[in-house]
Amino acid sequence: MVLSGATFAQHSISIKFENYAGTELLHVQQTYINGAGEQFTVRNFRYYISNIVLKNKLQSETHEGYFLIDQSDDASKEIILQTNLDSVSAIQFLLGVDSLRNVTGVQTGALDPAMDMYWTWNTGYVMAKLEGSSTGANTPRHIFSYHVGGYKEGEQTTRNIKLSFNTVDFVRPKKIIYISADILKWFDGKNKISIAATPLCHEPGKLAVMLADNYAAMFSMQKE
Amino acid sequence: MKWISTILFVALILLVAISWHDRKPAVHSISFTVPKGWPQPVYDFKSNPITEEGFQLGRKLFYDGRLSKDGNFACASCHQQFAAFATYDHELSHGNNNSFTRRNAPALFNLAWQPEFMWDGGINHLDAQPLAPITDTNEMAETIGNVISKLKADTGYRRMFKAAFGDETINTQRMTKAISQFVVMLVSNNSKYDRVKRGEDSFNLPQRLGYQIFQKKCIGCHTEPLFTDYSYRNIGLPEDDFLHDKGRMKITSKSSDSLKFKVPSLRNVALSFPYSHDGRFYTLLDVMEFYRHSNPAGASVDSSVKHGIPLSNFEIGQLTAFMKSLTDSAFINNPRFAPPGFETRMPAAQPDIHKSN
């Protein structure tokens, strides 16, 4: 933790992730329509958050830790950090798991391979997972399944996310940062992704990178 | 005089207190010895210091069928000590629910020097290696979570994890570190070849001639002292029309890596038959017959075998004699690598190779 200037008493700050499909809160098994006009439902949506940096105009503060945000587990959607900053005006984090943790053996906690976000046959983390079904998917039970990972050069799927917002002032008891993640951006961003054309992504490579370029834009600050 | 004895008494109490406070946990370190003339290992021993307790835990895990879905498939079911920890006489190993594995089970030894694992090098760390066979549906077919729950429910394991790691926490990292502590100690460096190199023995004529031929025709890939350079090469084997195994290309997605597989070590090669990634060669003779008749086509075929390897019948005989000198009988008979408890059933105490040098 690096601080410039005076230090302040520690505050608790909560970062709450809320998953959306467009403007609606995400619910499993509810039908949504993506940018390609395909109807689909979501069964599972998970992603890693790490290397969180809190900032204000003068200071920045880096937080260790890896967090797995899981749509089916509400407790996982809240990250509580202790901060010395008196105010926070921007937040930066990595979506995914940095390459060092992909090459140094077996990790613990949120990074335990038992969390089912890990490729055993081609070592590395699945940075984010979106699974569901769509009638257009030519697969068993019309499943679509995007396991996006890859840490090597040319296959990088971690993305740096930078968000700024109106100052959160700790003098007042407002200590929650709301961040929304919009799954529709997976299909409709820098790249157009159609479930019918590419229902499965289960290895590092071109499709994983395209999905990663899209999910890089899925986060936004929520207006209160 | 009374105050002197009081001071001495207090000092004694203090000494006892300090030594009690500084007492080392009851783990017994095992030092990993690099055989003379060998390169430094790549395994990071600092992040996983080897102890007798960790080694014994890893050994128990290696031989425990509960790591598989139906309890029948321990690591050791495909990695048999008498076959230098390959599967004896099986081109492909047998996995859960009457399945075949997709590739020939490699022999396990000298893993501390191995930078990547599997025939395609897809696994980048020894600790991560066991997770692939544990979870693969045609191998042990279990989930990591289930394995951890089974271990947690076992009093014996809780005790052994505590002995090895200081407390009863059982997680994937500790399990795999313990397995690494066992398999990393599987060092094979006591073949006749090694004894000759150390000046303790001498080759007979066919072995000596075979060694000379080996140095001319094989050493480019099967580099001493590990007898592999750990590279990935296409030696010109036609693709199997059922398995369609592209080898290294599956990991790198590069067409230049099509049909490339890791160069296997030739240590203990007389025991680790059948040969090649899919076990298509049953004998050493088959392999050498392939090389001498091979005239492969394909962009990714290794330049060293573009026209096969010319070998006369005589050379094949001498090479075979040399390759048999790479069999390490001390290694395959080492009771410490046998199933837990094996030592107590042995007729006589055996020297511990880890303490001898």
Q: What's the story with the biggest beta sheet of chain A?
A: 9 strands, mixed
Number of helices of chain A: 2
Shape of chain B: globular
CATH architecture of the largest domain in chain B: Orthogonal Bundle
**Tally of strands of chain B:** 4
Overall helicity of chain A: under 10%
Low-pLDDT stretches of chain B are none
The number of domains of chain B: 2
Q: How many domains would you count in the coordinates of chain A?
A: 1
Assembly state (oligomeric): heterodimer
Question: Which structural class matches the secondary elements of chain B?
Answer: mainly alpha
Listing every helix as H and every strand as E from the N terminus to the C terminus, the arrangement of chain A reads EEEEEEEHEEEEEEHE
Which percent range describes the beta-strand content of chain A? Answer: over 45%
| Average pLDDT level of chain B | 92
Distance between the termini of chain A: 29 Å
Span of the ends, CA to CA of chain B: 53 Å
Q: Biggest interface and which pair forms it? A: A-B, 20 and 28 residues
Describe the strand arrangement of the main beta sheet of chain B, using strand numbers: 1-2
CATH superfamily of the largest domain in chain B: Cytochrome c-like domain
Quote the CATH topology of the largest domain in chain B: Cytochrome Bc1 Complex, Chain D, domain 2
Shape of chain A: globular
